[in-house]
Amino acid sequence: MPDTARPQSPPVPSSTLPDGLSRVALWTAAAHAAECQREAPYVLDPWAADFLHTAGFSAGPPGEGPLQRLLPDWAVVRTRFYDEYLVDAARSGCRQVVLLGAGLDTRAFRLNWPTGVHVFEVEHPAVLAFKDHVLDWSPPTCGRRSTIGVDPSDAWAEELLAAGFDPRRPTAWLCETLLYHLQPHAVEAIVGTMTELSAPGSVFGAECVNAESASSSFVAPFLDALSATGIAWHWQLAEPEGWWAGQGWEARAADLFTLPYVIQRLSPYLPLLTEAAAKCVFLTTGTLRD
User: What SS3 class is residue 204?
Assistant: First the structure.
């Protein structure tokens, strides 16, 4: 694990900030930066504050509702959940890890990977250039890191293969926040490519918005505030297990409140969490079906 005390990269002039650097990625970085100040952080991302400084970014999610207050802690919980999923998958034999829509993800640099893991990051080339500017030649903790500079909502299979990806080997895929911002046909195309490139034993992780909670009093005001900024949650599912089964994967949505760190971190929000609110998103994982 790298030292958390790092000199900050110089700010990039606003005119050169990458168009693909989303506010969503920076909101997550802000949550990680705040988490680093805790005595026992669930996620330790030494570069998070530097991303914000370099981008000259200090805004938070729009609006002032209960969901907005919960979001930073939710981002930390989600990151911790998929941190554990990826490391467990790698230890179980998935030595290829593909981060689709990698954004400002630093898992290649901060997780305790087993030997021989190759992490691939698929993201808009300008975002990768911005991230590498901040990372400033920091050594990865995985065996190898490859970046694939292409918009993940476009075709990327050939570029991934050219970067050394082997479709004969089991892979751990992660679409942490990418999919629900896309239209359903784009999601189906991405998942279809992911399925075609997956060998037996491959696994995936993806956050999915619960369609049955989107109109609730807990979620709807936030979606309205997001819409005013040009951001939307287009892809929503009511039954993630059934949808993923149709794509060739045996999936399940995590029962988050069985996880000690979730209970501890989200307990202050329990008075706000009706059943609909508590299940407004699904953290799904799954395995390629035989």
Answer: strand
Residues ≥6 apart with Cβ < 8 Å to 245: 251, 289
Token pair in block for residue 43: 């996620």
**Helix intervals (H) in 38-124:** 48-55, 66-91, 107-110
**Cβ(98)–Cβ(123) below 8 Å:** no
DSSP type of residue 247: T
Distances (CA, A) of 210 to 167, 234, 239, 244, 278: 31, 11, 8, 14, 10
- Domains with residue ranges and CATH for the chain: 65-288 (3.40.50.150)
SS3 state at 208: strand
**Tokens at 219, concatenated:** 């979620």
Given a cut of 50, the residues of the chain with pLDDT beneath it are: 1-5, 13-16
Query: Contact at 8 Å (CB) between 42 and 76?
Result: yes
Encode pLDDT of 125-141 as tens digits. Answer: 999 999 999 999 999 99
Amino acid making up residue 170 = P
pTM for the model:
0.92
Report residue 190: phi and psi, to 5°.
Answer: -65, -50
